[in-house]
Specification:
The protein is mostly helical and 211 residues long. It has a two-stranded antiparallel sheet. 22% of the residues are buried.
């Protein structure tokens, strides 16, 4: 597994060097930082995922850095808009990790893996998940409202029911909305899966709204 990790990381670095042709040599420092954090995430003397920093890493390396530097490679500049969108994507990606850590709370605690859920508890995890969803939605809301297809396509299907569904509530027959975010173990698997399509939904709307 270690060999596979280094081979994959080496190939990623090799292909990443091609981006210098489209931008400038300073991207090398970004690549070095990414490579170091890939290894430091679960290895080394201070593994980040075992010390409550996994969420920060996901926010940075699944949101801020890839979005902002993709924008930079194409425009040779940074923008506030790309940063806000990168934070929104990062928060949604963090939620996938939150669900995974919520499910593994007992095992992580026994293994002394200090995730944010282990450090602050399952109640914090539930609040953290919903808060991430709400912040991500607020960050992309201006683009959603400015999208030309909103009035014709989405006005009759408001975002609120989708947000409620994604935060773990489903309608069961005649019963009122029944919360499922409190589940764990294998019951978290479909709940975690629901986070992926909503990442796609969040990014279809902003793209539609871009000039």
């Amino acid at each position: 597994m270690l060999t596979g990790t280094f081979v994959t990381l080496g190939l990623a670095c090799l292909f990443g060097l091609l981006l210098i042709c489209f931008a400038d040599w300073r991207l090398i420092w970004v690549g070095i930082a990414i490579a170091i954090c890939v290894l430091a995430y679960s290895a080394g003397p201070f593994p980040l995922a075992y010390n409550g920093l996994g969420d920060v890493c996901v926010l940075l390396f699944y949101g801020v850095i890839p979005v902002c530097f993709t924008y930079y490679v194409q425009t040779l500049s940074f923008s506030l808009l790309s940063f806000l969108l990168s934070v929104a994507l990062g928060l949604l990606s963090v939620n996938i990790l939150v669900v995974n850590n919520y499910r593994d709370y007992e095992q992580d605690k026994a293994a002394r893996k200090r995730t944010t859920i282990v450090l602050f508890g399952r109640r914090f995890g539930r609040v953290f998940y919903i808060l991430n969803e709400c912040i991500a939605f607020i960050l992309v809301l201006p683009l959603i409202l400015d999208a030309p297809l909103v009035d014709s396509v989405f006005i009759r299907n408001p975002v609120r029911p989708l947000l409620l569904y994604d935060t773990g509530t489903v309608r069961a027959g005649r019963k009122s909305l029944e919360p499922h975010i409190g589940t764990y173990r294998t019951q978290c698997i479909p709940f975690c899966g629901n986070s992926f399509p909503f990442i796609r939904i969040y990014w279809i709307w902003p793209v539609i709204g871009l000039p």
